[in-house]
Fold this protein.
Amino acid sequence: MTRPDSSLQASPRRPFRRAAGGALGLLLWIAGCSGLPLSPPPPSGMVPVPAGEFLMGSRIDNPREWGDTDEEPVHAVWLDTFYIDRYEASAAEFAEFLNAFPHFAPGFLETGPAVTIERVNGEYRPRPGLERYPANRINWYGAQAYCVWRGKRLPTEAEWEKAARGTDGRIFPWGNEHPDNSRATYRRSFRKLGFRAMEPVDSMPQGASPYGVHHMAGNVWEWVQDWYEDTYYEHSPRKNPPGPGTGVHKVLRGGNWYYKAYYMRTTYRFNDPPESFKVWQGVRCAWSP
């Protein structure tokens, strides 16, 4: 495999995360070097979400008074068939990706005491015993590059929401019942529990979505493809909405181990700058046939 063009290589003083143009170049390079056929079968570990319509968004006028103005109006969205990872990217999976691109890795994930991946002797590895825990403190560029490296992509915001709630308008992935710690990592303090605030990515099946997707509430916030725009639902296209063309922040969905129920709702829209590193940021990927 050839190395990336030297123009994409970041110096220690100018980390990759600060060069948005380099992000696009590396993604294209990964895709070109992947050796994947143009129409591969669905990657393993993914579940299909069939084509069809669902209602996206939430009404603020409801008995619980749950909802923000950026979740309105409720609108019908048609999505083509897509696949989504059953589990969030694990520490072992994301460490493998980082080791494939060590020069760019510091621009994709920031290590630290609350991160499930550590760097030892120049090599990234999951902390012992946390191999199946979610990779965390990933920025949007790292999430996007990881998915491309896997022959996949980030889900759109609409795809993520349908995979989380199905077509029956449920408030949480498992239904409308309030969360508890049998369904999601809920109101857990990392300061008190350490990494036990999270759970392995393949755990808690009772909290799975209608399509059998785990941890779409709790564990880590998950980056999606879309730029964030608070009024996007007022003018988004009905079929396969791609999100705004430009923006400042990217959308994350699903809550994390500490947040209360309000933020774990399938319709809640969080956002952060794409270059930011926070301990609750993670990723799962999508794929189109």
Summary: The first helix runs from residue 20 to 33. The two ends are 27 Å apart (CA to CA). The CA atoms of residues 171 and 177 lie 8 Å apart. Residues 1-21, 34-38 have pLDDT under 50 and may be disordered.
